[in-house]
Amino acid sequence: MSTDAPGGHVLLIEDDAPIRRFVRLALEYAGYSVSEAESVKRGQIDAATRRPDLLIVDLGLPDGDGKTLITQVRGWSPVPILVLSARDQEREKVAALDAGADDYLTKPFGIDELLTRLRALQRRLQPQAAEPVWRFGDVEVDARTHDVRRRGETVHLTPIEFRLLVTLLRAQGAVLTYRQLLTQVWGPGHAERTHHLRVHMANLRRKLEDDPAQPRHLLTELQVGYRLVV
């Protein structure tokens, strides 16, 4: 990490001064160190020179769109990027995630949710065993043996269902767009077949959730994609 702060160093790129102050105080109280930028240009410079552990980016910046900054940063850095924006249209969320953002939080927002999202993004970069065992709820997934158990009982998943589940687990709580999931699980030629994805997600929920109609772990981001919450 680039700082001794327990939570790491966050670069907050936001032009609204009251929001910037509110977020900074909350993050510092949670143990992060925070630096601020108010524009795309300043954000690009600070991302390159300060080498933050996390980026929080607004989309409506005075000298351009935050998606431009995200695309440029993603060209040279895997740093986790959370979009914090008042734009709540699905097309904006999808565009930001496709540009390289890892997650998207719409204003207004709660600090608890913001911190939860940041912790999830940080977990994605933590070293993991080559063949990890994941757990969420009463489900255990062994990537080495392809075994899935729920309450100690084996759950049969098809190869596609298993790949979809592991892809969501590897995202460590971040949202994945329909296109990202279809490309990673089925391949580039299937990026538009969202119906297939919905069918397999419904099957996973039926097998792994207590109430498939109100899932606690396999969550939908409406018109955007899915995330898995542990």
From TrEMBL:
Coiled coil: none annotated. The modification 4-aspartylphosphate is found at residue 58. Signal peptide: none annotated. Residues 9-122 form the Response regulatory domain. GO terms for molecular function: phosphorelay response regulator activity; transcription cis-regulatory region binding. Residues 131-230 form the OmpR/PhoB-type domain. InterPro entries: CheY-like_superfamily, OmpR/PhoB-type_DNA-bd, Sig_transdc_resp-reg_C-effctor, Sig_transdc_resp-reg_receiver, WalR-like, WH-like_DNA-bd_sf. Residues 131-230 bind DNA. The lineage of its organism: Bacteria, Pseudomonadati, Pseudomonadota, Betaproteobacteria, Burkholderiales. It holds the Pfam family Response_reg. Keywords: DNA-binding, Phosphoprotein. The keyword DNA-binding applies. It comes from Tepidimonas aquatica. This is KDP operon transcriptional regulatory protein KdpE. One of its GO terms (cellular component) is cytosol. GO terms for biological process: regulation of DNA-templated transcription.
